[in-house]
Prior knowledge:
Structural class: alpha+beta
Strand content: 25-35%
Distance between the termini: 47 Å
Order of helices and strands: EHHEEEEEEHEEHEHEEEEHEEEH
Bound molecules: uracil
Shape: elongated
Radius of gyration: 22 Å
Helix content: 10-25%
Amino acid sequence: MTKAKFRQPATKPYTTRLDRFISQNSDCSMADTRLLLAQRRIRLDGVVADSVQQAVTKFTRVELDGVCLQSEEPVYLAFNKPAGVVSATKDSKHPTVLDLVQHPRKDELHIAGRLDFNTTGLVLLTNDGAWSSRISSPRTKLPKIYEVSVSEPLNREYVDAFQAGIYFACEGITTLPARLEILSPYRARLSLVEGKYHQVKRMFGSFRNKVLSLHRVSVGAVSLDGLEPRATRPVSASELAEMSQQVFGTRYREVCP
Length: 257
Ligand code: URA
């Protein structure tokens, strides 16, 4: 069987200093950049640049004397994954998230945080490797909220155990504190700040309780918010701004050493 294919984001986000970018993309040298700045001849995303150390990413629009040296639009999408779909680019047996996503630039996109085959709900897609790396990084501790139904009744013990952390013997690790809200004897909402392999199923599995359905409702500032199964929508400007705060601190006025 051919294995599912995952489109990997660039592991090292493309970010460079303004003076290096100018020397690589124009006839001017790194040293010339100071003069260009003093003469207010460079604009980054429409704003006059003022430091050679300003960060230029793949998606920064850079203009020198009004001539555009680079402009590439990032794409950020929210998709409501149905069950029976692989979180991958290609799969020989089953439909993939990328097969179902409707977008003119979908060939550029990769998934930021996969869901299991039968898990439903929010999947984020992007062509911005820096953004997806931060979202998926365990260091970011971005909250992900799931609704889960299980085969055995829930009780306070689960809440306390998930808060304290569950030990996964295979990896020899303890999960980070997770918030479990019991909605009914067999249903709960779970907020996690990490994404270990089959994490939710294994956490309930430690109580010999089988997960019957698992649905992700939000990742950081982005929620499904009534998005129909199989539907795609752009992540809104306000969700993006809040997410940037959560994953980068602030994205603007970044400087490079
Ligand atoms: N935890 C799981 O067990 N499965 C998922 O798809 C996501 C989190």
